[in-house]
Amino acid sequence: MSGVTTSFPNAATEWRLPSRGKVAMAGVIIAESAIFTIFVVAYLFYLGKSITGPTPSEVLETPIFYTICLLSSSLTIHLAAKSLVRDFTRLFLGLWLLTIALGGLFLYGTAQEWHRLIYERGLTISTNLFGTTYYSLVGLHGFHVTAGLIMLVIVALFGLGGRVGKKQSGRIEVLAMYWHFVDAVWVVVFTVVYVLGR
Amino acid sequence: MSSNVITVSVGQTDAKPWVDELHQWLATVDHKRLGILYIVSALMFLVIGGVEALIIRIQLMHSHNNFVSPEVFNRMFTMHGTTMIFFVAMPVLFGFANYLVPLMIGARDMAFPRLNAFSFWLSFLGALLLYFSFLGGSGLYGAGNAPDVGWWSYAPLGARAFSPGHSSDYWTLSLLVSGFGSIGTAINIIATILCLRCPGMKLNRMPLFAWLNLVMAGMVLIAITPLSAAQIMLLIDRYLGGHFFDTQAGGSAVLWMHFFWIFGHPEVYVLIIPCFAFMSEIIPVFSRKPIFGYPVMVAATVSIAFVSMSVWAHHMFTIGMNSYANSFFTLTTMAVGVPTGIKIFNWIGTMWGGRIQFKTPMLFSIGFLFQFLIAGLTGIMMAASPFDWQLSLSYFVVAHFHYVIVGGILFALFAAFYYWYPKMTGRMLSESFGKWHFWLFLTGFHLTFDVMHVPGILGMPRRIYTYEAGRGWDTLNFIISIGAFIQAVAILVFVANLIISYFKGVPADNDPWDAWTLEWSIPSPPPAYNFATIPTVASRRPLWDHKHPEDPDSRYE
Q1: B298 in Cβ contact with B213 (< 8 Å)
Q2: Do B543 and A125 touch (CB under 8 A)?
Q3: How many domains does chain A have?
Q4: Looking at the domain assignment, is residue A178 inside a domain?
C-alpha cells in the first residue's frame, strides 16, 4: 500500500545526499567543540586566580617539538587518506604508521611534561586552581589523542592484515576528520595555555 | 527482525515466544521499536515524577504539615525536577523523533541503528543510576540518600562537604551518561535527516516536523555538552580534589551557575521545539489547511535556536551581575519572544478560515496555543531584570516554568499521543476517554498553575517545606494541591485510555485523519521495513498529491 511512488516527470532526476559518516563526524566535532569551549573558558577565567603557587609562568615550558609532531601528523594522515583514494595501499600504510608514531610521540611529550610537573614542581590536579584547570584541559585533549590513537592502531592492524583498500577510503576520511579536529583543538589549547596563559 | 516468521516446534512450552519477544525488544535496533521504548520508559518516569510532585503538594497543602520531613521534601523536589526534564521530557521527545522522522522523510531506518539503540540504553541506564541513589546514595557515611540539592545542584552544595555520601555522584553520573545518550541521538537525527531523505524530498519540502527536529538536534549538540563538561568538572572536584567550584581555593560558584544555565536555558527550547513540531503537523490537518507561512516557520525556528543560546543569564539576575550584563540578557530574552510570537501567529493563521475539527489532538493543540502564550507573557515579565529581582526564586517563577512545561510541552505531547497512537499501534485512542482526559487535565492545570502565581507575588519562596499560617498562603496552596490531584486523575484516565485502546480500540486504517505526510501512506503499525518501495515526492504534502492528482501541491511550489 505504499502508493506514494507517483512518478513526476521532472522529479528526482539526480538525487544526491551527503555521506552520513561525514555528517555524523561533523556532529561529533560540533559537540566536542562545545565541551572544549567550556574547559577553555574555565581555564581563562581562573588564570591568575590561584591562591597558592606554582603559577603557569613558573613551571610551564613550551612544548614546541611535540606540537610540531602533532601538527605534522595532520598532514601525514591527510596524505594517507588521499593515497588510499588512489589505491596506493602501501603508501597509505606507511603514512598511517607515521601518523601513529607522531601522535604517540606527542603523547610521550605530554607524559614527560606531566611527570616533570608532578615530581619536580609538585603541581598536581589538587594543588591549586591552575593545576585543576591545566590538568583537566590538557588531559581532556590528551584523552582525545589517546582515543584517536586507539582507532588509528585498529585501522593499522587491519591494514597490516591487508584488509584496508580503496573501498574503505570513505571511512578512513571520516577518521581523518576526527584527527584533524584533535589537532585543531591543540592549536587552541597551545595558544591558551602556553602563549596567552603565561 | 519481524516477529511473524518464528516457527515453534510442536511440544515446546508456551513460554518460548514470550522470551523471544522480550529478547527482540531488548536487542532491537529498529527505530520504531526504540521510539516506543523511549516513550514507554518516559511514561513510566512520568508517573514516578508525578508521584513525587504529589508528595510535594500534599506536604504544602496547609501550614506546618508533617507529611514528610524537610530532608525528604528536598529529595522530592530535586528528583521531581531532574526526572521530569531528563527522563520524561527528553526521552519522550526523542522517542517521537525516532519513530516519526524516518517515516516522514521516506527512509527505512535511522542513519545509525546501532548507535540509536546504544543511545537509548545509555539514557535509560542513566535514569536507573539516578533512582539507584535511593538505595546506594548513603554510601559509607549513612548521610542522605537521593540527591537533595535541587536540580541545579548549585555550588557549593554539590561539593563533598555539603553533599556527603554518593547522592550527588549518582546525580552527576546519571546526567553525564544520559547526556552522552542525548548527543548520540542528536547526531543520529541530524545524519538521518540530511542523508536519508527519499528522492524529491528537498530541504524545503521536508515536513516541518523533520525541520524542527533537525534544529532541536543541532541545539542538543551545543546545549547538552556544556552540562556534560560541567559534570566532568564536578566529578574532578569531588573525586580528584579539584577546585573548579571550590570558593575556598579561589574557585567560583558563579561559574557553575553560568555553565549550568548555558545548558539550562537552551534546554527549554530543546524541549519546546519538538512540541512546535507536533503543533505544525497537527494543527494543519485538523484545520484542513496547509501550514501558513512554511518558510517563515523554519526561519523563526532557526532564529529561536540562535537567540536562545544567548539568554541563559536571565536565570541569574539576582546574583548581582553588572548592569551591562543585566541589560544584555533582558534584551536577548525579550528578543526571543519575537520569533516565538511569529510561530503562534502562523498557527492561528493556519486555523483562520479552516474547517476546524475538534478531535482530541486538536483540543490539546488549542490548549497548547493559549497556555504557551500566557507562559510566554509571564516569561517576558520575568525578563525585565527589576521585576525578576522581586519575584525570582518565588512561586511565581515555579508557576511560570510549569506553565511552559505542563501547559506547553505536556499539552503538545498529549496532542501527539492522540494523533500518532493509531499509527504506532493500529488502534484509535478512545475519543470519549480523550475528552475526559482533556477537560479534567485542563481544569486541574489551571487550578494549580494559575493560582500558583499568586502566592509567588505574595512572597512565598520556592523549595520551602512548610510555611507559617496567616500569611494568606494557606487557601491558595490548598487549591493548588487540589488541582494537582485533578491532574493526577486525568493522567490515570490517559494511561487507562492507552492500555484499554491498545486491546479494544477501534482498528485504525493507514490514514485515519486524512493527513498529508508520508507516515500515513503505509500500514498502521508500519512493517519493519517501513516502505516496500522508497517513495518519491514532489511537494510538501505528498499524500495530498497522491489523493488529489487533479490538483497537486507540486503545481504551486
Answers
A1: no
A2: no
A3: 1
A4: yes
pLDDT at B10 over 90: no
Q: Nearest 5°: CA angle at B95, between B90 and B101?
A: 115
User: How do residues B393-410 score in pLDDT, each as one tens digit?
Assistant: 999 999 999 999 999 999
Burial B388-426 (b: 16+ CB within 10 A, else e): beebbebbbbbbbbbbbbbbbbbbbbbbbbbbbbbbbbb
Spatial separation of the C-alpha atoms in residues B453 and B383, rounded to whole Å: 16
Question: Which residues, in sequence order, are CB contacts of B66 under 8 Å at separation 6+?
Answer: none
B104 near A CB under 8 A:
no
Q: Which of B183, B195, B252 sits opposite A18 (nearest CB)?
A: B195
Q: What is the mean pLDDT of residues B136-162?
A: 80
CB nearest to B199's CB, from A12, A30, A34: A12
The residues, any chain, with a CB within 8 Å of residue B474's CB and separated by 6 or more, are: B62, B63
CA dist., res. B157 & res. B463, Å (int) = 15
Q: What's this model's pTM, rounded to 2 decimal places? A: 0.94
Average per-residue pLDDT for chain B:
93
Give the CATH number, domain containing residue A151.
Answer: 1.20.120.80
Q: Is A39 an interface residue toward B (CB < 8 Å)?
A: yes
Task: Note the pLDDT of residue A53.
Answer: 84
In chain B, what residues touch A129 (CB-CB under 8 Å)? 243-244, 249-251
Chain B's closest residue to A10, CA to CA, is B538
Tell me the nearest-neighbour CA distance from A98 into chain B, angstroms: 31
Residue B5: inside a domain = no
User: Which residues of chain A register pLDDT less than 70?
Assistant: 1-13
pLDDT band at B164 (very low <50, low <70, confident <90, very high): confident
pLDDT at B4: 47
- Find the residue in B nearest to A7 (Cα): B536
Q: In the prediction, which pLDDT does B15 show?
A: 59
- Domain contains B25: no
Q: What ipTM does this complex have?
A: 0.93
Closest residue on chain A to B246 (Cα): A129
Q: How far apart are CA A14 and CA B202, in angstroms?
A: 12
Shortest CA distance to A67 belongs to which of A3, A138, A154, A128? A138
**SS3 assignment, position B312:** helix
Residue B255 covered by a domain:
yes
Q: Show the domain range for A84.
A: 20-196
- A141 in a structural domain: yes
Contact A6 B545 (CB under 8 A): yes
Domain membership of residue B394 as a residue range: 37-555
Q: Are B129 and B83 in contact (CB under 8 A)?
A: no
Count of CB pairs separated by less than 8 Å, A with B: 149
CA of B106: which chain A residue's CA is closest?
A4
Q: Does B519 touch chain A (CB under 8 A)?
A: no
Model confidence at B91: pLDDT above 80: yes
Residue B507 β-bridge partners: B427
The number of folded domains in chain B is 1
Q: How many CA atoms lie within 13 A of B167 on its CB side?
A: 26
Q: Does A51 touch chain B (CB under 8 A)?
A: yes
Residues of B (256-315) whose Cβ lies below 8 Å from A:
259, 262
Asked, for residue A149, whether it belongs to a domain, the answer is yes
The answer to whether the Cα torsion of B123, B407, B369, B281 is positive or negative is positive
- The answer as to whether B13 is a domain residue is no
- pLDDT tens for residues B36-53? 999 999 999 999 999 999
**A119 and chain B: CB distance < 8 Å anywhere?**
no
- The pLDDT, as a whole number, for residue B140 is 54
The enclosing domain of B340 has a CATH number of 1.20.210.10
Q: Domain for residue A33, yes or no?
A: yes
Other C-beta atoms lying within 10 Å of the C-beta of residue B470: 8
The answer to whether the Cα torsion of B77, B78, B80, B82 is positive or negative is positive
